[in-house]
Design a protein that fits this description.
alpha/beta; 38% helix; single chain; Aldo/keto reductase; NADP_OxRdtase_dom; oxidoreductase
């Protein structure tokens, strides 16, 4: 497994990380046995970055990761945790809470669920509009000083917020959606991260399975599946987006690759400071994603991929209107 360095402080992780959300939430029921087997397979393959959130299954995801780490010896594994999203017993979203006291309380619960002495990367899931980012980062900095957190990250924030946060404490990485269908980071945010020496962990690299090469209109989704409400999976938008997938398939097949492998390899090719998070929750999908590491894209390959799926060609926004309005990263570069 090749490695990449996140941030100027030198946090070394595997070139691909595993996003674990789907094992507990957002995409309908997941098989617990297969989830644990996939986590173990990822560790065996050399993946050293696991990403979760304390609100994924209301703690279920953290406990699942804790169990996987406790039952399988492995080398250094970095666990990235997002916090702040508030949910009710019915799973509905209630907003965000990133007040200092909430930050420290959430960290205490995450440490217990994960079964670790320190969280490797701790980050607010979104910008809390009611709390200055300086206060939130200051609270995490206290946790760093006390040994409960090792590094501070950010998620889905714009350049101004990144700069304000970095002025309080070094930031190791920004977690943000980045794929062939979601390239907003290229309009300023990526430049800001590189100026400040901040790495990027890219989620949604397959646009929630849309550009995995495995999605078609016959797929059925449970009511709990996020994609039921995602604009890109609805009506004419889906038809237009699947046309892009078929164009990508032609490029992939000409290079003896799958669509997913080409899409992941494209993100990998965008900079050594970018670590894609693959959301595999089955071992076969994990194996396919790892195959992206076998491809070194040439300039001609990248041009062909971007011609098949040009910037801005995606039909529909990446979240619904209400969620898009909550993203600091969408307000300004």
């Amino acid at each position: 497994m090749r490695e990449r360095t996140l941030g100027k402080n030198g946090l070394v992780v595997s070139s691909l990380g595993l996003g674990c959300m789907g094992m507990s939430d957002m995409y309908g029921p997941a098989d617990r046995t297969e989830s644990l087997a996939t986590l173990h397979a990822a560790l065996d393959a050399g993946i050293t970055l696991l990403d979760t959130g304390d609100f994924y299954g209301m703690g279920h995801n953290e406990m699942l990761i804790g169990e996987a780490l406790a039952t399988r010896s492995a080398g250094p594994v970095r666990v990235s945790v997002k916090f702040g999203a508030q949910r009710g017993p019915d799973g509905n979203w209630l907003g965000y809470d990133a007040r200092p006291q909430a930050v420290k309380t959430a960290a205490a619960y995450s440490l217990k669920r994960l079964g670790v002495e320190a969280i490797d990367i701790y980050r607010p899931a979104r910008l809390d509009p009611n709390v200055p980012i300086e206060e939130t980062i200051g609270a995490i900095a206290d946790l760093v000083k006390d040994g409960y957190v090792k590094h501070i990250g950010l998620s889905e924030v714009g350049s101004e917020t990144i700069r304000r946060a970095a002025a309080v404490h070094p930031i190791v990485d920004l977690q943000i959606e980045y794929s062939l269908l979601s390239r907003g980071i290229e309009d300023g945010i990526l430049d800001t991260c590189r100026e400040l020496g901040i790495g990027v962990t890219a989620y949604g690299v397959l646009s929630r399975g849309l550009i995995s090469g495995h999605w078609d209109k016959t797929k059925t989704m449970t009511g709990a599946d996020f994609r039921n409400r995602s604009p890109r999976f609805q009506g004419d938008n889906l038809d237009r987006n699947l046309v892009l997938v078929e164009a990508l398939r032609q490029v992939a097949e000409s290079r003896n690759a799958s669509v997913a492998q080409i899409a992941i390899a494209w993100v990998l090719a965008k900079g050594d400071d970018i670590v894609p998070l693959i959301g595999a929750r089955r071992r076969d999908r994990l194996t396919e994603a790892l195959g992206a590491l076998d491809f070194t894209l040439t300039a001609a390959d990248i041009a062909a991929i971007e011609q098949a799926a040009p910037k801005g060609a995606a039909a529909g926004s990446r979240y619904n209107e209400l969620q898009m309005a909550s993203l600091d990263s969408e307000r300004a570069a």
